[in-house]
Design goal:
Structural class: mainly alpha
Pfam family, one: IQUB
Mean pLDDT: 76
Helix content: 40-55%
Strand order of the largest sheet: 1-3-4
Shape: flat
Distance between the termini: 131 Å
Largest sheet: 3 strands, antiparallel
Low-confidence stretches: 1-95, 114-125
Protein name: IQ motif and ubiquitin domain containing
Strand content: 5-15%
Radius of gyration: 59 Å
Length: 722
């Protein structure tokens, strides 16, 4: 360029989003701009930049690299960039001439600029002259802004007088030439990212001395949207309504008109009011008091009526509950008598036969007392002989019932034994659910159980019986031994006899023999491995020498589990079977009621979950001694002697159960006792003293037992040692 050029830029600010966003939090930074004297409004808007991977200042052709924080609009080979080939110095004379030409041209185009400023939606930038040593990027124009420029030159022969370019809009994609080597260039297509929102004007301040305006710069980062929670949120300040009520008495002006000279007012609607008796303060308060008393009378009557109705309703409910409880107890007693009668008629368990022998002994004692009280001499002896014959007849009848019951119980015991072998493995998971798993051994035991059930069935068709026998034959034939050979021979014999039409009554012995031999086959661990864990007699003979004791009564060596060991015992006595025979022949006592009391006691103590131990050390004989000798077989409160209705509970529920911390009560009394919080306030001192004496007696008895010594209090241990 052979002279100085004067360029005036007018930029219409448009909504220009930022392409490269500075980091969030860059707001409130001061940004200085020169203010024009015309006082035009300050511009606010985002700057659009081109995103490339090329660092600024490299490979941009004839353009200069922008300094950090500056923005500008430039394009390769633009006529507005300063070319070093045509640049020339500007003299003072040529510069003044240039100013005069520019002023004359500005006056002519004032009207055109006014029309242009109306079409621009945002504020218009003021014009400025670009110096020779600066390029167009110093105009601070941003992307997508409309730029109008003028270029004046003194040499009108070579250059036109005025060159105008306006309405330039940055395209979406621009080509950029990048220098990749010392003499190699590459054209790169750069995509222009445009802002999606308009950058707001955040205000600023102006220096009055220098006239420089400082604008508050905001972050160009697009604000993040809050995640939707699925619920509509409201602000309390805008949604809550605060109301305030205030009473106000408005004025109501009135006027009266009286008859006077020249005015007549009718008195037809007037009312004559005569003053009443004057009421003093004492009379007023007296009348108020009488009214209050009347109100209190009616209220008290209403309250008393409600109270009486409530008491009547409670009494009615109480009587109904008592009647219901009496009916329940009566029904329970009748059911109990009926069950005992049924158990005596059809005894099946050991407890049933204990009740039967106990009833026989009670009857015998009553008859002996009657004979001794009414008869003497030879008549007495004859009556006693007749009583002995009746007793023997009854004992024989009981024996026949026992044989039948033993046969049924033996079959049930065998099936229970085999079912226990066939049960799958069970365990509880962390979530409380029970998991079951079958092993090859349990499946084998289940198969043998089904075969045994089929073989032991009676009254089945002949074809089905033959199928069962063939299945049994195939099962036992897998193992070759003397037992399996005998079972196979018996099966072949039964099949042969059935083919000869032999009666089934003649085959009962053969079938029982097959069942017995097959049961022996099942109980062998070689054929049924799962049974080894349940057999009482271990397969290994060496294990028999451990925990084996000798019974001096029946002279048998039995495991320790077959011997009753009372808490105060120091030696091994007779086995369970010998004790049972001795009880049936001599004392004929029934321990069922004591056993029920002990079971209920252990069940209730397990519910406390405080790791109590003493209740599980006490045996049936120890509990019987406590009930009979210490508590007298009756309740401590009501003296009820029905052992079926008596239970043992803790005396002080905060301490674990022990023979010196217990009380014998009925079931209803025990429930009420456990609800008490303070025993000293609930019971009298004499009653508490009597209970303490019983505890001392129990302490003396159980102090002789070595297993109980560790549970005694320290003071009692020292007393026993001394």
């Amino acid at each position: 360029m052979e002279g100085a050029s004067d360029c005036r830029l007018e930029a219409a600010n448009a909504e220009t989003p930022a392409a490269e966003q500075p980091p969030a939090g860059a707001g409130e930074a001061g940004e200085a701009r020169n203010a024009e004297p015309q006082g035009e409004p300050l511009l606010s808007g985002g700057a659009g930049t081109a995103q490339t991977d090329v660092p600024p200042g490299e490979g941009l052709g004839h353009h200069e690299a922008m300094e950090n924080g500056e923005q500008g609009v430039c394009e390769p080979d633009s006529p507005f960039s300063a070319s070093p080939e045509h640049a020339s110095p500007v003299t003072i004379t040529s510069y003044s001439t240039l100013l005069e030409l520019r002023n004359s041209e500005r006056e002519k185009e004032t009207s055109q600029n006014a029309v242009l400023s109306e079409n621009v939606t945002s504020s218009t930038a003021t014009g400025s002259i670009i110096e020779d040593n600066k390029t167009l990027m110093w105009s601070m124009a941003t992307f997508c802004e409309t730029i109008q420029s003028e270029k004046l030159h003194l040499d009108l022969g070579h250059f036109p007088r005025k060159a105008v370019q306006q309405d330039y809009c940055m395209p979406d994609v621009i080509p950029v030439r990048v220098q990749t080597d010392s003499d190699t260039f590459q054209d790169v297509a750069v995509k222009i990212e445009r802002p999606t929102f308009r950058k707001p004007f955040l205000g600023g301040f102006k220096n009055r001395i220098t006239g420089v305006e400082f604008h508050n710069a905001g972050s160009q980062t697009i604000p993040k949207k809050r995640p939707e929670k699925g619920t509509t949120l409201f602000c309390r300040e805008t949604q809550t309504v605060f109301q305030k009520n205030k009473r106000q008495q408005t004025a109501n002006p009135t006027s009266t008109q009286m008859t006077k000279v020249g005015l007549y007012v009718s008195n037809v609607t007037d009312k004559l009011i005569t003053p009443g008796k004057y009421l003093t303060a004492e009379e007023y308060h007296k009348r108020r008091l009488e009214a209050v008393i009347v109100l209190q009378k009616y209220f008290r009557r209403w309250h008393a009526r409600n109270l009486v109705q409530k008491l009547k309703a409670e009494k009615r409910l109480r009587l109904a509950w008592e009647a219901q409880e009496e009916l329940r107890k009566k029904k329970e007693k009748e059911d109990k008598v009926r069950r005992e009668h049924e158990r005596r008629l059809n005894p099946k368990t050991k407890e049933d036969f204990e009740l039967l022998y106990h009833a026989l002994e009670s009857w015998r004692q009553e008859e002996i007392e009657r004979i001794n009280g009414t008869l003497t001499g030879a008549e007495r002896k004859a009556a006693l002989c007749g009583l002995l014959e009746q007793e023997a007849h009854l004992i024989a009848s009981i024996g026949r019932h026992k044989l039948n019951a033993d046969e049924e119980n033996q079959q049930k015991a065998v099936l229970h034994f085999l079912s226990k072998c066939a049960q799958p493995k069970r365990w509880k998971a962390y979530d409380g659910k029970t998991t079951e798993m079958d092993t090859p051994y349990t499946l084998r035991a289940r198969e043998l159980l089904e075969i045994y059930r089929s073989v032991s069935m009676n009254d089945i068709p002949q074809d089905e019986r033959i199928d069962v026998l063939l299945t049994l034959r195939c099962t036992v034939k897998e193992h070759a031994c003397e037992l399996t050979k005998e079972i196979v021979e018996l099966i072949d014999r039964e099949v042969d006899l059935m083919s000869r039409k032999v009666k089934e009554c003649n085959l009962e012995g053969l079938r029982k023999r097959i069942c017995t031999l097959f049961l022996q086959y099942i109980k062998k661990p070689e054929f049924n491995p799962e049974v080894a864990k349940i057999l009482k007699v271990p397969p290994d003979p060496l294990k028999l020498y451990k925990n084996v004791n000798f019974c001096r009564s029946c002279e048998n060596y039995l495991p320790s589990t077959e011997f009753p060991v009372p808490a105060n015992s120091r030696t091994i006595g007779r086995c369970h079977l010998c004790c049972k025979l001795d009880n049936e022949a001599r004392r004929r006592e029934s321990f069922l009621k004591y056993r029920l009391i002990l079971e209920n006691l252990r069940k209730s103590e397990a519910g406390y979950q405080d790791d109590t131990e003493i209740v599980f050390l006490v045996q049936l004989q120890d509990l019987q001694y406590m009930i009979e000798n210490i508590w007298g077989c009756q309740s401590a409160l009501s003296a009820c002697s029905d052992l079926c209705d008596l239970v043992m509970v803790r005396w002080d529920k905060q301490q674990e159960w022990s023979p010196w911390n217990t009380i014998l009560l009925t079931k209803d009394e025990a429930d009420a006792h456990l609800k008490l919080c303070n025993l000293q306030e609930a019971y009298e001192a004499a009653f508490i003293h009597r209970i303490k004496q019983k505890h001392i007696r129990a302490k003396k008895y159980f102090a002789q037992i070595p297993a109980m010594t560790s549970f005694l209090p320290r003071s009692d241990k020292q007393a026993n040692a001394s």
